[in-house]
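Ticket 4471: requesting a sanity check on a complex prediction with 4'-phosphopantetheine. Repro inputs:
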Amino acid sequence: MGLTALCPGTFDPVTNGHLDIIERAAQRFDALIVGVLDNPSKQPLFTAEERVTLLKEVTQGLNNVEVEAFSGLLVEYATQRGADVVVKGLRAVTDFEYEIQMAQMNHSLAGVETLFMTTAPQWSFLSSSLVREVAKLGGDVGGLVPPVVAERLRERFA
Ligand code: PNS
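Returned structure tokens:
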């Protein structure tokens, strides 16, 4: 039986950094589920449905990748989907401080293992929140997100 990994996130919106981790994880596992957090208590720029649609568009060439929204506890979703591991990207030590807490909590709650992949250096400065801010202020995010995402951001802030 093959190994299934779960790559969870908010993806508001998906960036080239996310896509790099998704592509590399898809090469290392038999199946990769991209889990898009639908958190009703937050007000994202893009709805969960829109984020799922964008992720599906930018991963359509990856045959072993599935994109789906989830809500509630990550460990419950991971268990329900039969994921063997959770995969997260690490940009810097500052990410690690928060990520290790979540990884240890998820392991303590349900024995869910987290594997970390280092972000490609060219995307280590990149975050969805900075992309949103730059796009909102009229900056060019063309080199930071897939073209379809850049287009959707332009429409949103037009
Ligand atoms: O892209 P993000 O915003 O850094 O992703 C964070 C995410 C979605 C992985 C995290 O917030 C999460 O797992 N949320 C689900 C709720 C949950 O399980 N919380 C407890 C985490 S220890």
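Notes from triage: The pocket of 4'-phosphopantetheine is lined by residues 8-10, 37, 73-74, 102, 105-106 (CB under 6 Å). Leaving this open until the requester confirms.
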